[in-house]
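Hey, I'm writing a tutorial for new members on how sequence and structure tokens pair up, and I'd like a real worked example in the thread rather than a made-up one. If someone can provide the structure for the chain below, I'll link this post from the tutorial.
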Amino acid sequence: MPARLSILVRLLSPLACAALSVALYGSEGGAQPKVAPQPKAAPQPKAAADPDAQTVLPPGLYLFQTRTREGNCPDASRTGYVTSAVATLDGVPGARAMTMQLLNSKYWPTWNMSVTADDVIIGTANRNGGTDASLGTSRFELRAKKDRFQGVGARTYSAVVDGKKTECVLHYDALLKPLD
């Protein structure tokens, strides 16, 4: 063997041995313990997509505003009066029914929300968060518009006007906007 080839074989031998060692045992230089393969979990059936799910209104934190359009009782807020409330929309993503809590509203704190098949959002509430609709009700309908939901609503409640019990109605514009 020529001297140059002999030197090349001696140089390559340690490099070849090191490469073979890394390939067989990993970069740690020692043998890795063999781990028994884990049995695979039984595949779970995929849940079918809910054909009734909605995608327009997710649960989260929102700004809810109303602006008075008109009212037939003297205790109604004047036209143009704006109320604002921080709202939590609670429920399962995709569900058509959820609840909305207005964190700073004593008259209309709890709302039942629903999303129709044509993506109209309907909110209904009883006055003071109660279950007795005779104390007063409020209802609005909203549609998506850019980054918010806009629409109209009405509140009905009883009041004493000039000594007589009167059915009052207050119409309002409504806005629901996600808070990022």
